[in-house]
Amino acid sequence: MTDIEETLANLSREDRRFEPPADLAANANLKADAYEAAAADREGFWAEQAERLTWATKWDQVLDWTNPPFATWFVGGTLNAAYNCVDRHVEAGRGDKVAIHWVGEPEGDTRDLTYADLQREVSKAANALTDLGVAKGDRVAIYMPMIPEAVVAMLACARIGAPHTVVFGGFSADALASRLDDCQAKVVVTADGGYRRGAASALKPAVDEARSKTDVVEKVLVVRRTNQEVDWDDSVDVWWHDVVDSASEEHTPEAFDSEHPLYVMYTSGTTGKPKGILHTTGGYLVGSSYTHHAVFDLKPETDVYWCTADIGWVTGHSYIVYGPLANGATQVLYEGTPDHPERGRWWKIIEQYGVTIFYTAPTAIRSFMKQGHDVPDTFDMSSLRILGSVGEPINPEAYVWYRHVIGGDRTPVVDTWWQTETGSIMISPLPGVTAGKPGSAMTPIPGIEAEVVDDEGNPVPNGSGGYLVVTSPWPSMLRTIWGDDERFKDTYWKRFEKQGYYFAGDGAKKDDDGDIWVLGRVDDVMNVSGHRLSTTEIESALVSHPKVAEAAVVGASDPDTGQAPVAYVILREEAGDGGEGIAKELSDHVRKEIGPIAKPRQIMIVPELPKTRSGKIMRRLLRDVAEKREVGDTTTLADSSIMDLISAGQATST
Ligand code: WTA
């Protein structure tokens, strides 16, 4: 069965409902009436949410949508994002409150930062970046492990109005170089390395290599984390401890226009070239702080919040940095892998810090499920009151396991659907209102309007499937693709241009109650452990290998990672059969070009690829082979015998 079929089958069987606990419902930040209030006056509702922030100049209009799809939110307003995330909490007398309980991977390697500490660190880093020549509007790349300096660097950029682009530390030098180039980053902030799985892994060499491929970078600011040897170029490299530690703790944050660029986050699209998703200041901060307050029911005085995402992804931006800090939360930030040095490391952290709200991804939950409940059962996790899930559809069994084994059957599970492009959570239960259904993201949260539509853009009736769209603009929506307004329009707004809907690229179904079940991507984007990868990007990486003539990649369903890349490769004639170890050679090549997450699960050398008469590769058929299903309808193939050859090869290779 494909993912989608399985989900649909589960859906028809699924009749479990989990009501919110009575005390949570009674004290919830958002109650049922929020839906009505938002529906009655959407802009008024968002204006109210914007009051959560401190504005230097108040806006005079909530939304300008006269030039769609280019939105202006909180027109005329000015603010500083870092001030909102840090200084204002200190000014309100909460400087001694812990902002970040940082937990390094090596046991005992911990650091607590209060909001006052954060204010000092961010101010110093802002001064140091300014001294390095970074001015308002310049782009700064951040390529770091999960250490406090990563958060400090992001906020320092925001403070001086320099949009950051955080590149996930698992990406290769090539992937880093193309991102540096695309946004013309002047400075890179990095570290010598970080700790993963008990060992120091290096980061600085990838920055050095990326610099050999692009000459945009003027300075590299390096945090010493692991003490490993690094190559050093005196004209470019600067140690963080030299320039940040000695910088002044005084820094006056300037107020920027509500639409001033806050950051660019690259994400995979359907072509080989990643898209730089642009988020701006006011609307994004309103969206991330409101949703964090609403969906996680955050009570900043008593909650201890933990989101396990990496800051290299949008989840880390919205739900580690901007949302929680704007809300004055106390949170855990963990550097390492979930199971190091012991399998229960995460649960131990929850017990130690008394974590009350926990936000992670289905792929992690599934890997813990495989280990069974013995490990989590040895820890006291009674502090938990809300669990969250993000990144991919959560299958009902994982949802129920999560709620039962981790949440002790007390905790609502909020399955949150959103994207890099949406900036913040769009569809999710509200923990104090919604009776949760395992596997469903339920309904758009108050303020958001989304639908499931058919090919013509008409809402589908309950019980049917279609495309997921957002039907009206929202504050944290992407503003464009960096440097490419046309691609922005084409990718998201062309499909349902007549209706003016944002096309998310996901398929979804409304059940008999009208609740939404997100089924997965309908384009050539796959979702591997909650990470978006484009089939074309991996194909381009394969084709750049000298032995490869042609390649087709599909996302095959995978019990652990949701989907996994499977590649079909035609070798060049002069490469013969590629030689022994060709699969590993190609897989290493993908790893080098993109990063370890893009490595195919399986590479099959094939004589031909299934193509239509117009030359389009029929990935659907390759997915059938990869998922070991009977191959579907081949009548539109130019040469229908090809699938027999490919399937036969598959039979012998497994
Ligand atoms: C998928 C991550 C089902 C979806 C925040 C979307 C989900 C893509 C869910 C965005 C969910 C995310 N249920 N699918 N709760 N959350 N997705 O940009 O396919 O890394 O389009 O943002 O992940 O991935 P991105």
TrEMBL record:
<feature type="binding site">
    <location>
        <position position="315"/>
    </location>
    <ligand>
        <name>CoA</name>
    </ligand>
</feature>
<feature type="binding site">
    <location>
        <position position="521"/>
    </location>
    <ligand>
        <name>ATP</name>
    </ligand>
</feature>
<keyword id="KW-0007">Acetylation</keyword>
<dbReference type="InterPro" id="IPR020845">
    <property type="entry name" value="AMP-binding_CS"/>
</dbReference>
<dbReference type="InterPro" id="IPR042099">
    <property type="entry name" value="ANL_N_sf"/>
</dbReference>
<feature type="binding site">
    <location>
        <begin position="196"/>
        <end position="199"/>
    </location>
    <ligand>
        <name>CoA</name>
    </ligand>
</feature>
<feature type="binding site">
    <location>
        <position position="591"/>
    </location>
    <ligand>
        <name>CoA</name>
    </ligand>
</feature>
<dbReference type="Pfam" id="PF13193">
    <property type="entry name" value="AMP-binding_C"/>
</dbReference>
<dbReference type="InterPro" id="IPR000873">
    <property type="entry name" value="AMP-dep_synth/lig_dom"/>
</dbReference>
<feature type="domain" description="Acetyl-coenzyme A synthetase N-terminal">
    <location>
        <begin position="33"/>
        <end position="85"/>
    </location>
</feature>
<comment type="similarity">
    <text>Belongs to the ATP-dependent AMP-binding enzyme family.</text>
</comment>
<feature type="binding site">
    <location>
        <position position="543"/>
    </location>
    <ligand>
        <name>Mg(2+)</name>
    </ligand>
</feature>
<protein>
    <recommendedName>
        <fullName>Acetyl-coenzyme A synthetase</fullName>
        <ecNumber>6.2.1.1</ecNumber>
    </recommendedName>
</protein>
<feature type="binding site">
    <location>
        <position position="506"/>
    </location>
    <ligand>
        <name>ATP</name>
    </ligand>
</feature>
<keyword id="KW-0460">Magnesium</keyword>
<dbReference type="InterPro" id="IPR011904">
    <property type="entry name" value="Ac_CoA_lig"/>
</dbReference>
<feature type="binding site">
    <location>
        <position position="545"/>
    </location>
    <ligand>
        <name>Mg(2+)</name>
    </ligand>
</feature>
<dbReference type="Pfam" id="PF00501">
    <property type="entry name" value="AMP-binding"/>
</dbReference>
<comment type="function">
    <text>Catalyzes the conversion of acetate into acetyl-CoA (AcCoA), an essential intermediate at the junction of anabolic and catabolic pathways. AcsA undergoes a two-step reaction. In the first half reaction, AcsA combines acetate with ATP to form acetyl-adenylate (AcAMP) intermediate. In the second half reaction, it can then transfer the acetyl group from AcAMP to the sulfhydryl group of CoA, forming the product AcCoA.</text>
</comment>
<feature type="modified residue" description="N6-acetyllysine">
    <location>
        <position position="616"/>
    </location>
</feature>
<feature type="binding site">
    <location>
        <position position="529"/>
    </location>
    <ligand>
        <name>CoA</name>
    </ligand>
</feature>
<dbReference type="Pfam" id="PF16177">
    <property type="entry name" value="ACAS_N"/>
</dbReference>
<dbReference type="InterPro" id="IPR045851">
    <property type="entry name" value="AMP-bd_C_sf"/>
</dbReference>
<keyword id="KW-0479">Metal-binding</keyword>
<feature type="binding site">
    <location>
        <position position="548"/>
    </location>
    <ligand>
        <name>Mg(2+)</name>
    </ligand>
</feature>
<keyword id="KW-0547">Nucleotide-binding</keyword>
<feature type="binding site">
    <location>
        <begin position="415"/>
        <end position="420"/>
    </location>
    <ligand>
        <name>ATP</name>
    </ligand>
</feature>
<feature type="domain" description="AMP-binding enzyme C-terminal">
    <location>
        <begin position="537"/>
        <end position="616"/>
    </location>
</feature>
<keyword id="KW-0436">Ligase</keyword>
<dbReference type="InterPro" id="IPR032387">
    <property type="entry name" value="ACAS_N"/>
</dbReference>
<feature type="binding site">
    <location>
        <begin position="391"/>
        <end position="393"/>
    </location>
    <ligand>
        <name>ATP</name>
    </ligand>
</feature>
<keyword id="KW-0067">ATP-binding</keyword>
<feature type="binding site">
    <location>
        <position position="532"/>
    </location>
    <ligand>
        <name>ATP</name>
    </ligand>
</feature>
<dbReference type="GO" id="GO:0003987">
    <property type="term" value="F:acetate-CoA ligase activity"/>
</dbReference>
<dbReference type="InterPro" id="IPR025110">
    <property type="entry name" value="AMP-bd_C"/>
</dbReference>
<feature type="domain" description="AMP-dependent synthetase/ligase">
    <location>
        <begin position="92"/>
        <end position="474"/>
    </location>
</feature>
